[in-house]
Write a structure and sequence with these properties.
With 268 residues, the chain is an alpha/beta fold. The chain is 39% helix and 21% strand. The termini are far apart.
Amino acid sequence: MTRMPAVADRFYPGEPNVLRRTIAELTPNIEAARKQRALAVVMPHAGYVYSGSTAGATIARVQVPETVLIMGPNHHGRGAALALATEDWQMPMGRVPIDQQLAEALLHASSLVQADEEAHLYEHSLEVQVPFLQAMQPELKIVPLVVSALPFATCQQFARELALAIGSLRRPVLMLASTDMSHYESREEASHKDQMALEHILAMDAQGLYSTVVGQRISMCGIIPTTIALLAAQELGATKAVLVRYTDSGEASGDTSQVVGYAGLFIS
C-alpha cells in the first residue's frame, strides 16, 4: 500500500514541473557551505501562496539529511494520538520511502506510538512539507507522525523516547515540527500572542511554550509537535533556536483584520 497525496492542487501545485518551479521560487539559493546543521526545524503548513515563502526560507538554511521525521497536528481527529505512518508516500515529485529503521526503532522505544495509516489519510500538515524536503534532499526518507493533544508530561516522555530512537541510529536525522501560529485574529493581536510563544522557543523553554500557548489560548495548532521537537532536540544536545522568519497571511491576501501567523525556526 502507498499513501497518495490528499491536498495536491489545493495547498500546492499537483503538476510535478509546476511544483518544482514553485519550490524553486520560494526557496532561496543558499550555498551548501553556508547551511546550518540542525536537529529540528519549525515550519508552517498553510497553502504555499500564504506560508510557502516562510517554509522555503527556513528549510533553505539547514542541511537536510536523508532522514527527516515530520510531526504535525491532527486536524481531522482520526486515528491514534501518536500515529506513525509506515507505508511509502507517493508525491507529485516522486515516491518517498519511509525510513523503516527509524520507524521500527521508534515503535520499539515508545509504547505511546502506534502504526496507524488512518490518521494520515487526509492530513495536510505533514504532506505540504514533503516537496520542500524533496527539493533539498534527493535521497529523502521520511518518518511521518500525526500528533493529537497531549499533556506536557506525556510530551516529555515521548520526547525522551524519540531522542533514544534517533540516537540509536548513529546517523543524522532532522525533526520537522509542522505548525501555523495564531488563527483568525487581527494582525496586531496575532503578532502579540505569537511573539509570546516564539520567545519561549528562542529561550529553549518547552514548559514555558506549552504553558503560554495553553494559558493564553493561543491558537497555535502544532503546539504539541513543536513542544516534542524542542524537548527531543535538547535531549540530543541542542542549545539554541534561531527565528528565520515570521509573517502572516495578510502579506499575501492584503487582509490584516483576520490573519494566520507563520513562523520558521531552526534548533541546533
